[in-house]
Design goal:
The chain has about 375 residues and is of the alpha+beta class. It has two domains: about 1-145, Jelly Rolls (Sandwich), CATH 2.60.120; about 150-360, 3-Layer(aba) Sandwich (Rossmann fold), CATH 3.40.50.1110. About 20% of the residues lie in helices and about 30% in strands. It has eight helices and 23 strands. The chain has helices spanning about 165, 180-185, 220-225, 245, 260-275, 295-310, 320-325, 350-355, and strands at about 1-5, 10-20, 25-30, 40, 45-50, 55, 60, 70-75, 80, 85-90, 95-100, 105-110, 115-120, 135, 140, 145-150, 155-160, 195-200, 235-240, 280-285, 315-320, 325, 330-335.
Length: about 375
Amino acid sequence: MTTGGPSFDDRTIRMVVHSSVAGSRARITLSNRYSATPLDVGAVDVAVQASGAQAERGTTRNVTFGASGHITLPAGAEAASDVVPISVGAGENLLVSLYVPGSTGVSTWHSDAFDTTYLASGDHTGDDGAGAFGATRTSWYYLAGLDVVPATAKGTVVAFGDSITDGYRSSTGTYRRWPDFLGRRLGAGPRPQRLSVVDAGIGGNRVLTDAPNLRQGVSALKRFGHDALGRPGIRDVILFEGINDIGNNAGPDGQPLTAEDLIDGYRTLADEAHTARVRVIGATLLPDQGNGYYTPAAEAIRQTVNQWIRTGGAFDGVIDFDRALRDPANPAALDPAYDSGDHLHPGDAGMKALADAIDLRLLRS
């Protein structure tokens, strides 16, 4: 979640949530973490999605917080709901409907959901139908997480990164981000699925410094403990971030970036994970020749950083995304088969190739 979202007044916000694992009970987390005013929530419910904003009839469940259907979240606060009895399948979608009766002020949100959110005037929680939901957005508001009491999974792997992990330029509403493909790989084996996948990517996010665009979030150094290590059941983190630091030449204290700056940031994150007894797996940074981020100096930093990720020994494992997606004829550029067209972000085929490059034996299940 980040700051800078729009204000709402007397609206029902219906959001789609995609689960990587099956289970029979669930809870949600609402966040007012990046807002400056209290958030008054009049009602919340959850249902199995039929299609669009329409719920499967008979699946809608009221969501309570401390047995109350109403909650006021102070500025900066979060709250996990009571457990809701609802069945969800691996790869299935739930609809979370949130009614805010008054003006919210600037919202805590996740700008780039790559899914559709539906808006209605007034309180339409409890509606199975989609008729009242005449407006759409492509962001999540105040909804910071879905936890499922799983049928078989015993832990969580967090994909932590920037826009590539967030799913930028993947197809909206089709769940073709690389963490989605990873979740399906984990569920497709001969044994029951043992790990869930949480996507903690934020477009434009940086390791060392806060992005000047508020929706791109505070630095990885600031958010890692909450957004990654704070996830329920956390076992592993896949750390795949740094290209925005390099492309913006954004070193600490406003100085030009050096490879050692970024390496020091990775060391700090790895140490934080190990202190929490969480394994952290480093992923090499993708090539970007042809994109505005590319310069010979930036490429030299990327190459130095990638070599350190491969050989530095700070991580519990390494995934060589660079090797998997680079053009064999020009290693400074993405393979055209995987390039979305901007020479920085993979398209759907590239997202799948990232997930396929992960040796599942690296993940602690």
